[in-house]
Amino acid sequence: MCPGHCGIMESSLLPLLGTVLACVLGVGGYSNGRVEVSCTDMQPRHRSSPQTTPPPFTLSTDRVDYSAGEDVTVNLLAPSSSHFEGFLLQARVLGSESVAGSFLSAPSGTQRLSCGGSPNSALSHSSSSEKSSVQVTWRPAADQDVHFYATIVQNITVYWVAVASPRVRFSSGSNSTGGTSSLEPANTTVPSSAVSSMMTTAPLGITVEGCGASRLCFRQPPDCDPAQEPAACFFMSAMVLSPGSSAVHYQLSGPSPGYIAFGFSDDRNMGNDDIYICVEDASGRVQLQHAFSSGATTPDTVPLGSVWDIRTSLAAGVISCSFSTTNSISTQRSSQRHYLLYAHGPSSNGQVQMHSGTFVSADTVDVSSPGQELRTYRPLIIKAHGETLGL
């Protein structure tokens, strides 16, 4: 339906042509903010593609964790030199695609929507007028850890999809404040959280250069080099993009008939893990997925979040991928240090199957401290023994 400003302006041909063009451009977009059709994938239905550069916006909360009965204030802010015309804001349960909680009111120029059958579980614009900020109060419906996700539309051709806030944790007794995130773009299609970008049949050129100095590296066998022997080396590295930055660049490579994956865990067991998966889909393309594992079933995919610069490769049976992200690491404990898990195995139509090999770091690591070469520890224990696991 054409926006309200698309009425006949004059009887002359030129204004009429302008009206027709405006109406055509309005098709597929929702200037009135009634975007329930976008509840699941958070796509604005514009004809252009999402941006892959960092957006000039800040998503913040007044606390990084909350206790029972406490509300959370969420702010979406544009810098003085910028603005946005539309947005869609949700909270989602950690490790799930389910929306969480509700927004208590709709500030001027916004409206509440019902997503997934949950009243007032999303907030959007009510007109395409320029906005510099939105502040809203969110009330949890259960004691759950959540992420906030925002699709932000600067104009009809410039928008970012499903950018993620830092994790907001439930705590039995907490009043911590001040969760702020300068957003990076999410090359994602929610809810599958799978995306292929810069796919190639040539190797990505992943090497061991900088391992133990500028990069944290994790590999099996311990002295292998993915550049020299890609078919005999399982490799993962992490590098902070700039001093003091929360942005980390990851590289992953290994021989596999379906997928390779790494994850962060509070222990050496599978379960309650934050995982990134490079998986071959039905068309032979490699996709990047973000997932959360309970340890008892195939990991649940979650929105890819703040991820960009995705590159994938499938060459001579070796899967490789690299990407940058500002996503916080989400496990059960609040810690900067985690064990690293690595798994590989077959896939079926883009779905991971039971792993054929795994290994885990002997020690916990902090990805913001690059000067580490990790030792491996075997075996990797599965919490739900006897269950069929995807990782």
From TrEMBL:
Q: Which InterPro entries match?
A: DOMON_domain (IPR005018), Ferric-chelate_Red/DefProt (IPR051237), Reeler_dom (IPR002861), Reeler_sf (IPR042307)
Range of residues in the leader sequence? 1-22
The membrane topology noted for this protein in its Swiss-Prot or TrEMBL record is: Multi-pass membrane protein
Domain spans labelled DOMON: 232-345
Q: Which domain of life is it from?
A: Eukaryota
Residue ranges for the region (Disordered) are 109-130
Biased composition regions of type Low complexity, renumbered to the chain: 118-130
Q: Which GO terms describe its cellular component?
A: membrane
- Return the SMART domains for the record: DoH
Q: Where would I find the Reelin domain in this sequence?
A: 20-185
Q: Does the keyword Iron apply?
A: yes
Task: Provide this UniProt record's keywords sorted from A to Z.
Answer: Iron, Signal
Q: Does the keyword Iron apply?
A: yes
Q: Which cofactor does it need?
A: heme b
**Compartment annotation:** Membrane
Name the predominant localization. membrane
Q: Which family does it belong to?
A: Belongs to the FRRS1 family.
Please identify the protein, giving its name as recorded: Ferric-chelate reductase 1
Q: Look up and give the organism this protein is from.
A: Knipowitschia caucasica
